[in-house]
Amino acid sequence: MQTRYTTNPTDFKHYDTDRIRQDFLIESLFQPDSFEFVYSHYDRMIVGGVMPVQGPQSLPTYDELKADFFLQRRELGIINVAGDGSVTVDGQVFELTKKDCLYVGLGSKEVVFASNQPDQPAKFALISTPAHRSCPTAKLTSAEASPVDLGAQETANQRTIYKYIHADGLQSSQLVMGLTTLKPGSIWNTMPPHVHDRRMEAYIYFDIPENQRVFHFMGHPQETRHLLVASDQAILSPPWSIHSGAGTTSYSFIWAMAGENYSFTDMDFVQLRDIR
């Protein structure tokens, strides 16, 4: 488990490309039979992934948590972004196909991840935040997530939004989580951009072809920077930063938030004329 510390937006203005990638880009989320985690000091969110290949993988605990088990004081959101698999929580089995979501509540002791076929392994994207109340472990498929189509072909941002963990969906203590899939021919996400100073956000990009990339824009609205992001990589977005992207092709990404409030619509939009 890596640890990433918070950044002052004034200092961020002086970062070069390598420093921005070091602090905000998570380059490796899915390695065979291994948990990959980054512990962020932004709202204590943990971003990670696991890809079971040779056999089931049990969620370990880490010294950084100072806990008897991983979810002793935390909750966990899981979205499968690849082959069919399952997650077993304290003996209860949940089958997850691609884009299905599972919420695992505070106090769950044993969480085991498995792929149905080793040659087509599942890739479980993992987001964990501190929890102050216990909510039931529950599953939601992509079809049950009330998908909403937004955007227009003229602005190259036709997309489908799936909201899984939020006030009107799977209940949680503070985690808000879902995903967005862009239609063929559309490349822009989260444009016009916004910030939300009350909480941080993480993006996990997936379904990007090998030789394609997403230009992810971040930074204070008057001091923007960009990162080139490949498939199965993640971005940590500070509360003061915009988070937007344009791809060389269409793609999908998971978004997850944690912090002061629990409202999906809490966004401070920034007009394009004010972006620098």
Q: How big a fraction of the residues is strand? A: 35-45%
Largest sheet: 7 strands, mixed
Helix-strand topology string: EHHEEEEEEEEEEEEEEEEEEEEEEE
Give the assembly state of these chains. Answer: single chain
Q: Could you tell me the number of beta strands?
A: 24
How far apart the termini lie comes to: 35 Å
Q: Would you tell me the overall average pLDDT?
A: 93
Low-confidence stretches: none
**Overall structural domain count:** 1
Assign the CATH superfamily.
Jelly Rolls
Shape: globular
From the alpha-carbon coordinates, what is the Rg to the nearest angstrom?
A: 18 Å
CATH topology label: Jelly Rolls
EC number: 5.3.1.17
GO molecular function, one term: zinc ion binding
Organism: Larkinella rosea
InterPro entries: KduI, KduI/IolB_isomerase, KduI_N, RmlC-like_jellyroll, RmlC_Cupin_sf
Structure notes:
It is a single chain. By secondary structure, the chain is mostly beta strands. It contains 2 helices and 24 strands. It has a single domain (2-274), classed as Jelly Rolls (Sandwich), CATH 2.60.120.10. The chain has helices at residues 9-12, 17-24; strands at 2-4, 25-26, 35-40, 46-50, 57-58, 74-80, 85-89, 92-96, 101-104, 111-115, 124-130, 138-140, 148-150, 159-165, 176-182, 188-189, 194-195, 199-206, 214-220, 223-229, 233-237, 242-247, 252-259, 268-269. A 7-stranded mixed beta sheet has the order 1-3-4-11-6-9-12, with no helix packed on it. Strands 2-21-18-23-15-14-13 form a 7-stranded antiparallel beta sheet. Strand 19 (214-220) and strand 20 (223-229) form a beta hairpin. The longest helix is centred in the N-terminal third of the chain and has 8 residues, at 17-24. It is globular. The two termini are 35 Å apart. 43% of the residues are buried. Its EC number is 5.3.1.17. It is an enzyme of class 5 (isomerase). Pathway: Glycan metabolism; pectin degradation; 2-dehydro-3-deoxy-D-gluconate from pectin: step 4/5. It holds the Pfam family KduI.
